[in-house]
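ok so for the tutorial part 2 we go from a plain amino acid sequence to predicted structure tokens. step 1 is just haveing the sequence, like this:
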Amino acid sequence: MGVTTGAATLRHVAPDSADALASVIGALWAEASASGTTAVVATVAARTADLLGLEPLTPPHGAAGAGWKGDSSAVLAFAEQCCLDVASISPTLRDDFLAATGPLAGGLVASLWVVDMVPRTRAALVALFGPGGWPPPQVEPAPAGIWGALDRLMRVVPALDALDPVTSELVRLRGARQHDCRLCRSLRSRSALRAGATEAEFDAVDHYADSSLSALARASLAFCDAMLWTPGRIGADVVAALQAEARPDQQVELVLDVTRNALNKVAVALGADAAHVEDGIEVYDVEPDGSLVYGLAPD
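step 2 — the prediction. this is what the tokens look like for a chain of 299 residues:
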């Protein structure tokens, strides 16, 4: 392939996803600049990256600095808990964040997700393929704002098909259970079910290391855990295990899957993660345009 960095491998293997990630970062700083929240977003980016041992996203030249006069301490406290363990967000932290941010809450919570997850994504790709080469940040408004940029990312990642649907679904469920997303925990992929996945396999994500899941699945789940809990110190053994079982294109897809799936952190943080069903599971699938369809029959 002739590439030796995480950035170059991402660009080579998944150019649409690389573009979508760049658009998300550009939209982040455009959103912050327009709302006057660049200073608080940059503070959160530095703090959360420090907590995780990562390189933070930093605002580019030309991004407006201050302007917002809200309670930055409430935003920082909320962001720190989202970063470390979103499932432990308390009603008080949530209410304080919403009270402090008011009409800016939607854009800010998306921005907090970007400065939390993109450094994890980059660190994972660096651990697998080597450092260097990330494009400089830009202030680039997305057509539909930061949420439009995130929607594009959500749609392009499922177009990757190097990983088999069962492994992809196991990784999604692991993230759902680590973040305790009620909706995501209740879902099952029709593609995975059609490929022969069973509920016993899905339950095995809770004890994958000593399970009978495939070596690829176990290595992928361990790498997923590293991205979610220790992204600044992904172990050499975790990297080697994945590299032994997965091709480079599968490794890139795994990293992007973990990133995309982790958008459930926004719903969990805001208490908006209720399942569509009261009991049992709901079957979903991904349309060719990347949108999700729920309430399907398993076959």
